[in-house]
Structure formats: structure tokens, C-alpha cells
């Protein structure tokens, strides 16, 4: 399989993938609410989703909006896409704002969080979804003996750095509220490196470890920290290079018999942000159709 | 005033004009009330950072508030501790303050950048409940006021109320009997005697405790001050905080005994410095059949569960919250410290909550505050 | 379940349990009066049906009260007053031993009924009752005696006095207790203090908790029927002067718990010859030094503090209403306040606060409102979202003010707790317990400051509401305050020697 997590391209060259109107960007978030199915405790919540202009981040943001939340839609460069997500969020009965920041920059994250709090008065949920540029191409991946510390270091700095910056920025607010939810989007590659992207997987594993130790400390403040580990998620921009052969291979191995959609991931994220999961922390919830089964 | 404030004022005035004859209970204004209440809420949310923070902590924002009942009411303590004003408070043309009988150092303040809405509310409500055509043909009366006017007490909303009442609805021979810091009972008795001789109906107005003062004087002198036929008695405030309990029935008995006025000619007003409108019993507009209180069409009253602040059904006692569109500058929703119960015709006031007697041996707050004051006094003395 | 035991016992009839709420000496009869019914939910096991329990109050007439007071005085003189202290200790210890048995039926009834009567969380009642009763085991009872008497034998006979001569201590023949109900079972404390000095006892339970004193007195009477006459528990309508007059006229001492006003009202009716001990309202607070906010300590500190605040819904005078938190620890005071808020919320999930009256709820709403709109920089209100279950108000500066209780607390940041506690000075007459979490080197300087401020008890944070045996309640020697000392001066002793015909004096 290829990538577990496909997120907003935080790439400097964000042009790699074409916009796919009507498909990748039209998740069916309304379905949940049209069935009268509302996760408790999300109405009025202030949710910051990083990398929310596209892909999984967008689906998560819109799912929150459909539950009446205020979503801060973070983006790196595509202000137009972020603005469209905010419009859509309002149409779905939520509210929101677009907020630019490069989540790899500590000061930028601090500024973004301050902006969100200034606008919305608080910050209840953070979804660390943004992904630095990574090309999930099984045919062109770097082999183990080609992957040196500089590559791994760059991935750790980007993946782990982003969530550490975010924790640093939001914890004062969440502590002061005596409540908060931090959710990291990681990857099932950590458990099952079907396609071994060494640098990427190592960095995501670091996020999982950090997430657990963070959970241990901040639980006393009423803050939960959890991870969601999707399998190969389509359609997203970043999963594009993962071709049909690998996709079929993943499907054959998956009990549920299909690939993950962004909405599937959003469901797990909403669960962890809802009152239903108030006693769940330090966990990693796999959303991969049963591909990985373990404690 | 910022232009947006002027727009809000205009909308409120238009609403008042449109629904002048209605009351809080009129379903005909449901939709308009809801729309304007939420509009004012959004406006106050935007321009009052203290209130915005309070609402955000409760996840109530213009986006999550879908009906006027969702607007978080501001506890009246806020008027003591903070500045509840959308417009700059220093530009207010009037600042009404609570009497501060319980804590003189901490008085609640309501800033009025303009009195246009306040006075329109007062006049419209007064005409609707106190001077209905059925009870007072012609709409003007000789008014004898036992409490100060606004020349005596410029920061009292009640004083301003009486002044506007006399200016708007009083005949030329109306008088204030509270002058230079004291109530001139003799002058009042003389005036009543003169009115009686002339068979000129009067409306006596005053705070409830002012009547207590007069009754004490009458009792001491062993005389009555019988009002001419057709007269009315208007009181407000009750006796809480003045060292006496006085039930409504007892007040009516006084009026009958000392003023010769029957209960169906007595009206009680319920007002608060923190509001910009007043509520009334419906004695005069229902020929004495309904004593429950209600307000004009731009005020709605909820009875909330004291623990959860969830609205209670009819018949259950809870804390009173008022939603007053005329309070456009301060707070459209106010959480009082009064207990009441909702009835088919409005609500009934049960009383003000005193410092609660704690269940056990831990210090009851009032007791300790008293001790602290005494200690502080010792130090100064 | 209780079975019918005759006159003074539990009368079961047609599935209804009737609990008479009084215990009187044999020979005194009170007529059953009004009844308050309580429905106990079934245990759930085996389809247990709910049990209807009727609490029966007695009719108390002035004549009955006069007879009761006389009977207790007489019985005390004839039995209790003649016991050795060690026998009294044995007696109380035996009763406590029964109560510390989880299978003891009265304890089971107390555990089931007290939560219904008081509104307190059942688990709290169960745990705290056990903890409280452990304070009265034999070894602890001796601690009480030794705390107040250099030689407790003075309660039994004349013993040599420290300044020559001989000393004897006599308890009151009739001690009247006006008990309080804020903490279930605290009535036992008062009863035990009286019995330790062999006082004939008539206790009036609080209206809110009429049960525990009766149950415990019944246990005592069961163990020593010969002493039962010296102990009575009777509820009567507070302030009924016709009933109280014949009682107070015969009392040697009166103990009263309650608000200043309530206690003062009782004081006015106590005749001048009787000793009057009052335990009025008190305020307690907590002091958290930076040492208790180290990375490995802060969570535990907070947990213990929340327990002090929340247990019995803060109705104990020993529960803190104000917390001073020092800057310079690993957790800043503001973060500690947030942590405390989260802890209070968890406590609420685990042991929900009892229902509160409208006035109490509104007092909390008003309390929150006042600080939510405070202009003071940094002031923050943390509060339960949907109700008044708990409230934490954080302040950037030291200060001191009581709260509306029911789990509401002020947290004040300060640079140095030892100086910050000065803020409590205006409340001097009311200060009682202080919970501390502070480095040993600073404990005594702090304790000196607190002592000067008027505080009477310093305990660990987490133990604030559990006073140890021998505690000087509100700073007084509780047992010594109850007794009357009799001195034989050395002159009498010497003179007596002279009157011994066999004595031959070598002097003139």
C-alpha cells in the first residue's frame, strides 16, 4: 500500500495535483445529519483543522460544520480553496474562518492560534492534519539504504514539529478552559508498512509516541490527545501517484473491501472530538477497514 | 453614537410603534421580537468585549443562538462589576444607578447614550398599563409623587420615570412632595385635602416604602388621607431592604384604610435600573381581574431553573430573566436575583433572594461580610 | 432489616419500617407525633422492592421535657457519673466497634438513609462515616482525654495538683446539645465529648439530619442498658421556648452548633448558671506552596485539594473556601486553577453534588456573574457548564472572601504564601482550619503567621475535613471546657493533718 495519510499539500510547489471538482472535494458530509445523527457536544465548538483546504482536512472541517461547529480552516497557500471551505461550512449550518499559517513554523502556529481565539473566543478542538509535501509513489520511493538522517530529520521536523508547535500554542488556552481535544492524523503505515516510506513512517510514529506522553500530562486538565490512523485514502491529491495495482492490493487485504474515503476519517475524528469520547485519550484509532488489527 | 447604534435605535423605536398596544404575551409579535432580539444580541456581542467573552465561554454566539431564548442573560452583578455599554460610557447622557442599599460601594450602572428609547418605552408602557383609556379617560391626571424626581436624584431611573410620567401624563397641578432630601408629608396631606374638596381625582405615585412613611405619619396623627373618587395609587419596589416585610394584600389593606382606595385602583410597577422598560400588573387594563405581571411587547420574561438556567414551565418557581429590546446599549437579556413563577397571564413575583442561609456550619456569606465591614470600620475608626 | 424490638426498637409493620427518632431513658414516655416518610430504593438484587421508611417524631410537651431532664440528671448521678473513665472509654469503644462492622444493621441503615435525608452522595456518606467513627476508637478516645487533662484520672478522683493540693474534674450532670446537621455523623463527636466527661446528655438533632445521633445513642444503650438512662436524643421544634425552658433550667452546660444568629438565640435562653459553649460558623482556607507544584506533585496536590473542597459539598466548616497558590512552581497559579476546575468536574462525575435550594443555586449564579464581568485583570471564572455543580474563581492577586459554598472556591495567586495569608485578617473571628502543602522549612514560619491571624487548626491539604482525635475544636480544650474543677488547696490538706489526733508537731 502507499500512504496512510493524505492531507493538504503543505508543499511549496503545490501544483502537483490538479483540482478535481465534483469528486475529491465534495465529501458527503450532509449524510450524517440528514439521517438525524448528531454527535453530542460539537455544536458551538471552536475547531481548528490544519491543512483543511483540501482532502481529509476539508472533509473533517465540513463534518464539524455540519454538526454546528465553528471551524478555523487552516491553509498554506490556497486561500481560494480555504475560502470555499468556509462558505461551504456556513451552508452546512456551521460557521468558520480561513486562517493562513505554515504549521512547520513555530511563530506562525502561535499567531494562527491567537487569531482563532481572538475571533472565536476559545479553541476547543485541534485537528493536526496538515502534511508537508510528500510524494506517496511506491514506484519512486527511497529505499532504506538511500534514506539518510537528513531525509528522516526533515520529516520529523515537519510532522512532529508541527504538532509540538501546535501543542505549545493551544495548551495555555485549553488549560484555561479546563477542556480540549487534540487529534493527530497519523498513518496505519506505522503499524503495517506495506510500502515502506522510511522517513515518513518514522516521523508519524514519533507523533504517536508524543501524543501518548502528551495525553498522560494534560489529561488532568480535561484535555484528551488521540491519533487517527487512516489507511490509503482516496480520492486525495497526495494519493494520486499510488496506482491501481497497489490500490487493488490494499483492497484485497482489507476486510471491508475498499479504500478509505476522507469522510471515513472525518467520522473517527468527530467521534474523538465528541462527548462520546470524553474518556478516550492516548489512543490511536485506525480507520483502514480492518487492514491492521492489533492492540 | 456610531451609525450602527442609530440604526438599532431606529429599529427598536419602529418595533415599539408597531406593537404599542400589545404586551409580552402577544403572539402576534413573536417573529419580530425574535428577529430584533437576536439582532441586538449580535450587536452587543460584537461591541461589548466583556459580554462577548461571557457568551463565548458558554458557546453562545450569534451563530449558535438560533432563538431569542438562547441569548445568555447577563447577571445583574455585571452592572456592578463591569461596564455594560456598547457606546463609550463617558458619552452617556444619563447614567442610572442602583440604590445600593445592600452594598453602597458597589452600585450597578446602566449607561444611556440617548434616552429616546428609554423614554419611548416608559411612555408607551405607562399608557398601556397605567393609563388605559378604559380606566383613565382623557389620559392625563393630577399626579402627586411621593418619591424624588430627577432633579433630586439625577442617577435614579425611578426618579426619571416619575419626572417623565408627570411631564407626559400629569396635569399642570401635579406635584412632587419629596423635596430637598425629605418627604413633605404635611404638604401632601394638604394637597390631598384640597383635591378632595375639589373632587379632583389624583394619581399618587411613589416607591412602596414612601407609602409606608406616609402611613406611619397618618397613624401617628390619627388621620386619614382619603383620595377623591376616581383616584389611583401607583407603587413600585416592595419593602425588601427596608427592614419590613409587606405582602401585597397588606399594602392593599393600607390603601383602603388610610387612602380610601380599593385594590382594583392600585397598580404596582416592577422595574430595574438594569432594564430600560418596566413591567406592570394588569389591574387597570383588566378591571382588576389580573394581578399577574407582564410587560410591553418589547419585553419578554422567562422563569429559569435556578441551578441550570433552563426555562421552566408554567407554575414552577424559578429565577426571573427579562429580555428587553429597549436595553439596546446595555444587555438585551438580564438575569435577575428575583424568584417568580410563570402564569397564564404573565408572571408572579415571589420575592428577592436574600443571602442564602448555608446548610451548615460554614460561614453564611452575609454574616461574614458584615463582620468584615465592622472590622474595616474598627481600623478606620 | 430491623425487627420489632419492643418499645424503644424498630417497629416493622406491613412492610413499613418505622424509625422513632428519639431515645429516652426507661420510664420516660413520649407520644409518637408527625411522621416523615422516605422511600428507600430497592437494592436491585433479587428484585428487592423499595422500602417505605417512616421517620417518627415525638410529641414533646413542656411537662415531658421537665420529666426527661430530671430523669437524665438522676440517672447520671446514679450510674454514669460513678463510672471510671476507663469504663466510659470501653463503653464508647464497644459502640464504635459495632459501627465499624460493615454488617452492623444500624450502620447499613445510616448508609442508606443519610444520603436520602441530606442529599449527599451515598459513596461519600459511606466512606466519611467510617473515617469519622475511627476517630473514636479506644486509643483515640484516650488521645482526646490526654489532650485536655494532664492527668485524666482527675475525672475519677482527686489527684495531686501540679501546684500542690489536689484536683478533681466533674462533668455536668446535664449537658444539652444543639447539634448541627451539615456533616452527617458529626453529632457523634459532640455526644462522645460529653460522655467522656460522664455528662448526662440530652441532644437535639438538627432538622436536616435527625438520624445519626439517635442510631448511635441506641447502640450505646444496647451495650450498657444500665447506663441508658443518662443519655437521651430528642428532636423538638427549635426555638420552642415552652419546651426548652424546663430543660435549660436544669442544664449545667449547653453546647450549640450553628450560625451566629442561631447560636445567639439559644444563648439568650440559657440561664446564667449554666455553662454555654458555642460553635458558630467558620471559614477555612488552603495554602499551596510552590514546592507542592513540582512536576511530580502538582496533580496529587490538586486532587487532594479538590477532595477538601468537594466532600460533603463544602458544608463542613473545615472545607476551604479560599486557596492561595504560590507562583514559582512548575505549574503557574492560573494553570493550577484550571487544573482544579477539571478536577472538580471529575469529582462531580464521580460523586455528584447534592441538590441545592433555589436560593443557594442563585447565590452561586450571582457569585459567578460578579466575577465573570469583573474588571480586574486576569480574573477568570471556571464553572460547570450546565448547572451550579462547581465554580472556581481565579484572581491574579491575593484576597479573601467567602463563597456561596456547595463546591465554589476562590483561587488567589501570590508571590509568597506566608505573606499572602494576611489577606484573611478581616475575617479573624471566623478563621478556623488551614490546609497546607508547603516545604518543611516554611511550615513553622507559616504556622506562626496563621496562628497570629486567628486560625485554630493546620492540617495537610487533603485532610482538611478530617480533624484528628484531640483536636481543639475552634481553639478550645473541648473536654476541659465542659468540666468543673474542684481544688483541695494545700492548706486544707495541711490543716486536716493537724486535726489528726495522732500527729505530734515538732514546732510550736
Automatic annotation (TrEMBL), chain A:
- An MF annotation (GO) of this entry: oxidoreductase activity
Key word Oxidoreductase present: yes
- UniProtKB keywords: Oxidoreductase
Instruction: Give the InterPro entries listed for this entry.
Output: NAD(P)-bd_dom_sf, Sc_DH/Rdtase_CS, SDR, SDR_fam
- Record-level GO BP terms: bile acid metabolic process
Q: Coiled-coil segments, which residues?
A: none
- The keyword Cytoplasm belongs to this UniProt entry's keyword annotation: no
* A Pfam family of this chain: adh_short_C2
PANTHER family xrefs: 3-OXOACYL-(ACYL-CARRIER-PROTEIN) REDUCTASE, 3-OXOACYL-[ACYL-CARRIER-PROTEIN] REDUCTASE FABG
Family membership: Belongs to the short-chain dehydrogenases/reductases (SDR) family.
What's the name of the protein? Answer: 3-oxoacyl-ACP reductase
Q: Which species?
A: Alicyclobacillus cellulosilyticus
Lineage, broadest ranks: Bacteria, Bacillati, Bacillota, Bacilli, Bacillales
UniProtKB/TrEMBL annotation, chain B:
Entry's InterPro entries? ANL_N_sf, LuxE
SUPFAM superfamilies according to UniProt: Acetyl-CoA synthetase-like
This entry's Gene Ontology molecular function terms read:
long-chain fatty acid--protein ligase activity
Residue intervals of the Acyl-protein synthetase LuxE domain? 41-369
Tell me which domain of life the UniProt entry assigns to the organism this sequence originates from: Bacteria
Annotated GO biological process: bioluminescence
Write down what this protein is called: Coenzyme F390 synthetase
Species, as recorded: Alicyclobacillus cellulosilyticus
Automatic annotation (TrEMBL), chain C:
Which pathway does it operate in?
Lipid metabolism; fatty acid reduction for biolumincescence
The alphabetized UniProt keywords are: Luminescence, NADP, Oxidoreductase
- InterPro entries found in the cross-reference section: Ald_DH/histidinol_DH (IPR016161), Ald_DH_C (IPR016163), Ald_DH_N (IPR016162), CoA_reduct_LuxC (IPR008670)
EC nos = 1.2.1.50
Catalytic activity from the UniProt record: a long-chain fatty aldehyde + NADP(+) + CoA = a long-chain fatty acyl-CoA + NADPH + H(+)
Q: Name one Pfam family in it.
A: LuxC
* Molecular function via GO: acyl-CoA dehydrogenase activity; long-chain-fatty-acyl-CoA reductase activity
UniProt-listed SUPFAM superfamilies: ALDH-like
EC class: oxidoreductase
In the record, biological process GO terms are: bioluminescence
Primary role? LuxC is the fatty acid reductase enzyme responsible for synthesis of the aldehyde substrate for the luminescent reaction catalyzed by luciferase.
Q: Which family does it belong to?
A: Belongs to the LuxC family.
Q: Write down what this protein is called.
A: long-chain-fatty-acyl-CoA reductase
Q: What is the lineage of its organism?
A: Bacteria, Bacillati, Bacillota, Bacilli, Bacillales
Amino acid at each position: 500500500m502507499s500512504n496512510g495519510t493524505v492531507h493538504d499539500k503543505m508543499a511549496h510547489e503545490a501544483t502537483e495535483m490538479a483540482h478535481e471538482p465534483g469528486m475529491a472535494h465534495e465529501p458527503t458530509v450532509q449524510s450524517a445529519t440528514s439521517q438525524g445523527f448528531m454527535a453530542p457536544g460539537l455544536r458551538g465548538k471552536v475547531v481548528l483543522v490544519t491543512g483543511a483546504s483540501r482532502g481529509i482536512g476539508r472533509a473533517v472541517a465540513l463534518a464539524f460544520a455540519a454538526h454546528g461547529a465553528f471551524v478555523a480552516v487552516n491553509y498554506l497557500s490556497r486561500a481560494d480553496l480555504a475560502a470555499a471551505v468556509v462558505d461551504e461550512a456556513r451552508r452546512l449550518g456551521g460557521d468558520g474562518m480561513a486562517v493562513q499559517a505554515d504549521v512547520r513554523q513555530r511563530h506562525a502556529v502561535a499567531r494562527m492560534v491567537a487569531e482563532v481565539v481572538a475571533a472565536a473566543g476559545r479553541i476547543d478542538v485541534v485537528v493536526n492534519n496538515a502534511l508537508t509535501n510528500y510524494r506517496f509513489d511506491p514506484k519512486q520511493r527511497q529505499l532504506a539504504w538511500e534514506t539518510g538522517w537528513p531525509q528522516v530529520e526533515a520529516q520529523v521536523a515537519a510532522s512532529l514539529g508541527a504538532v509540538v508547535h501546535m501543542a505549545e500554542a493551544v495548551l495555555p488556552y485549553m488549560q484555561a478552559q479546563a477542556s480540549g481535544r487534540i487529534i493527530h492524523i497519523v498513518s496505519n503505515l506505522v503499524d503495517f508498512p506495506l510500502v515502506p516510506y522510511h522517513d515518513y513512517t518514522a516521523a508519524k510514529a514519533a507523533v504517536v509516541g508524543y501524543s501518548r506522553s502528551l495525553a498522560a500530562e494534560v489529561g488532568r486538565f480535561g484535555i484528551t490527545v488521540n491519533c487517527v490512523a487512516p489507511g490509503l485514502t482516496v480520492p486525495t491529491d497526495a494519493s494520486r501517484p499510488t496506482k491501481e495495482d497497489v490500490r487493488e492490493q490494499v483492497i484485497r487485504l482489507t476486510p471491508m473491501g475498499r479504500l478509505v474515503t476522507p469522510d471515513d476519517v472525518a467520522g473517527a475524528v468527530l467521534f474523538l472530538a465528541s462527548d462520546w469520547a470524553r474518556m478516550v485519550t492516548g489512543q490511536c484509532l485506525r480507520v483502514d477497514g480492518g487492514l491492521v488489527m492489533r492492540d | 453614537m456610531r451609525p450602527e447604534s442609530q440604526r438599532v435605535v431606529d429599529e427598536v423605536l419602529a418595533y415599539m410603534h408597531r406593537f404599542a398596544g400589545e404586551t409580552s404575551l402577544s403572539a402576534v409579535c413573536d417573529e419580530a421580537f425574535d428577529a430584533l432580539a437576536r439582532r441586538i444580541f449580535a450587536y452587543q456581542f460584537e461591541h461589548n468585549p466583556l459580554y462577548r467573552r461571557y457568551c463565548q465561554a458558554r458557546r453562545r454566539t450569534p451563530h449558535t443562538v438560533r432563538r431569542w431564548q438562547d441569548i445568555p442573560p447577563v447577571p445583574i452583578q455585571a452592572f456592578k462589576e463591569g461596564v455594560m455599554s456598547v457606546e463609550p460610557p463617558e458619552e452617556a447622557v444619563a447614567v442610572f444607578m442602583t440604590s445600593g442599599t445592600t452594598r453602597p460601594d458597589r452600585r450597578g450602572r446602566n449607561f444611556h447614550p440617548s434616552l429616546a428609547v428609554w423614554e419611548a418605552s416608559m411612555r408607551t408602557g405607562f399608557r398601556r398599563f397605567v393609563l388605559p383609556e378604559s380606566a383613565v379617560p382623557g389620559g392625563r391626571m393630577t399626579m402627586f409623587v411621593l418619591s424624588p424626581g430627577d432633579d433630586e436624584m439625577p442617577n435614579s431611573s425611578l426618579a426619571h420615570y416619575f419626572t417623565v410620567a408627570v411631564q407626559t401624563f400629569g396635569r399642570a397641578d401635579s406635584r412632587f412632595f419629596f423635596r430637598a432630601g425629605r418627604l413633605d408629608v404635611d404638604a401632601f396631606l394638604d394637597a390631598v385635602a384640597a383635591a378632595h374638596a375639589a373632587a379632583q381625582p389624583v394619581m399618587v405615585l411613589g416607591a412602596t416604602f414612601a407609602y409606608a412613611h406616609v402611613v406611619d405619619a397618618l397613624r401617628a396623627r390619627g388621620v386619614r388621607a382619603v383620595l377623591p373618587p376616581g383616584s389611583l395609587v401607583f407603587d413600585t419596589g416592595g419593602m425588601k431592604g427596608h427592614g419590613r416585610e409587606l405582602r401585597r394584600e397588606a399594602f392593599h389593606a393600607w390603601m383602603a384604610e388610610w387612602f380610601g382606595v380599593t385594590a382594583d385602583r392600585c397598580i404596582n410597577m416592577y422595574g430595574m435600573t438594569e432594564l430600560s422598560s418596566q413591567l406592570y400588573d394588569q389591574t387597570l387594563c383588566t378591571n382588576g381581574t389580573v394581578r399577574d405581571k407582564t410587560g410591553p411587547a418589547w419585553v419578554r420574561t422567562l422563569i429559569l431553573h435556578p441551578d441550570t438556567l433552563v426555562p421552566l414551565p408554567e407554575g414552577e418557581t424559578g429565577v426571573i430573566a427579562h429580555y428587553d429590546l429597549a436595553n439596546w446599549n446595555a444587555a438585551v437579556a438580564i438575569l435577575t436575583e428575583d424568584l417568580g413563577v410563570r402564569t397564564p397571564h404573565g408572571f408572579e413575583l415571589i420575592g428577592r433572594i436574600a443571602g442564602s442561609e448555608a446548610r451548615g456550619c460554614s460561614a453564611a456569606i452575609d454574616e461574614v461580610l458584615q463582620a468584615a465591614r465592622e472590622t474595616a470600620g474598627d481600623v478606620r475608626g | 432489616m430491623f425487627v420489632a424490638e419492643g418499645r424503644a426498637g424498630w417497629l416493622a409493620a406491613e412492610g413499613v419500617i418505622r424509625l422513632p427518632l428519639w431515645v429516652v431513658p426507661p420510664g420516660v414516655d413520649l407520644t409518637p407525633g408527625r411522621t416523615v416518610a422516605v422511600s428507600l430504593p430497592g437494592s436491585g438484587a433479587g428484585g428487592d422492592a423499595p422500602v417505605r421508611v417512616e421517620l417518627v417524631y415525638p410529641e414533646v410537651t413542656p411537662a415531658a421535657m421537665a420529666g426527661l431532664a430530671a430523669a437524665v440528671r438522676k440517672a447520671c448521678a446514679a450510674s454514669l457519673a460513678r463510672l471510671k473513665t476507663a469504663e466510659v472509654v470501653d463503653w464508647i469503644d464497644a459502640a464504635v466497634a459495632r459501627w465499624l462492622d460493615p454488617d452492623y444493621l444500624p450502620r447499613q441503615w445510616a448508609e442508606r438513609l443519610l444520603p436520602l435525608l441530606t442529599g449527599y452522595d451515598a459513596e461519600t456518606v459511606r466512606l466519611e462515616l467510617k473515617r469519622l467513627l475511627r476517630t473514636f476508637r479506644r486509643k483515640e478516645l484516650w488521645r482526646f482525654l490526654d489532650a485536655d487533662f494532664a492527668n485524666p484520672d482527675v475525672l475519677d478522683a482527686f489527684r495531686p495538683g501540679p501546684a500542690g493540693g489536689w484536683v478533681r474534674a466533674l462533668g455536668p450532670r446535664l449537658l444539652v446539645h444543639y447539634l448541627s446537621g451539615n456533616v452527617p455523623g458529626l453529632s457523634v463527636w459532640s455526644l462522645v465529648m460529653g460522655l467522656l466527661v460522664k455528662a448526662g446528655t440530652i441532644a437535639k438533632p438538627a432538622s436536616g439530619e435527625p438520624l445519626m445521633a439517635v442510631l448511635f445513642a441506641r447502640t450505646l444503650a444496647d451495650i450498657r442498658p444500665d447506663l441508658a438512662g443518662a443519655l437521651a436524643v430528642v428532636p423538638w421544634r427549635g426555638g420552642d421556648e415552652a419546651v426548652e425552658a424546663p430543660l435549660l433550667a436544669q442544664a449545667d452546660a449547653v453546647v450549640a452548633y450553628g450560625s451566629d444568629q442561631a447560636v445567639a438565640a439559644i444563648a439568650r435562653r440559657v440561664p446564667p448558671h449554666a455553662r454555654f459553649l458555642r460553635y458558630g460558623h467558620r471559614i477555612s482556607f488552603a495554602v499551596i506552596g510552590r514546592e507542592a507544584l513540582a512536576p511530580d506533585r502538582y496533580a496529587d496536590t490538586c486532587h487532594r485539594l479538590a477532595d477538601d473542597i468537594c466532600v460533603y459539598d463544602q458544608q463542613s466548616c473545615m472545607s476551604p473556601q479560599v486557596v492561595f497558590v504560590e507562583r514559582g512552581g512548575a505549574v503557574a497559579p492560573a494553570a493550577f486553577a484550571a487544573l482544579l476546575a477539571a478536577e472538580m468536574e471529575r469529582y462531580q462525575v464521580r460523586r455528584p453534588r447534592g441538590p441545592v435550594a433555589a436560593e443557594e443555586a442563585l447565590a452561586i449564579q450571582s457569585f459567578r456573574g460578579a466575577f465573570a464581568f469583573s474588571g480586574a485583570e486576569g480574573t477568570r471564572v471556571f464553572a460547570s457548564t450546565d448547572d451550579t455543580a462547581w465554580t472556581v474563581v481565579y484572581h491574579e492577586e491575593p484576597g479573601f472572601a467567602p463563597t456561596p459554598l456547595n463546591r465554589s472556591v476562590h483561587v488567589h495567586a501570590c508571590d509568597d504564601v506566608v505573606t499572602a495569608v494576611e489577606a484573611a485578617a478581616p475575617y479573624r473571628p471566623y478563621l478556623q482550619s488551614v490546609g497546607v502543602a508547603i516545604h518543611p522549612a516554611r511550615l513553622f514560619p507559616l504556622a506562626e503567621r496563621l496562628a497570629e491571624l486567628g486560625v485554630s487548626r493546620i492540617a495537610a491539604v487533603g485532610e482538611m475535613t478530617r480533624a484528628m482525635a484531640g483536636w481543639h475544636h475552634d481553639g478550645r480544650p473541648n473536654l476541659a471546657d465542659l468540666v468543673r474543677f474542684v481544688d483541695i488547696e494545700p492548706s486544707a490538706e495541711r490543716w486536716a493533718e493537724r486535726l489528726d489526733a495522732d500527729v505530734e508537731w515538732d514546732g510550736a
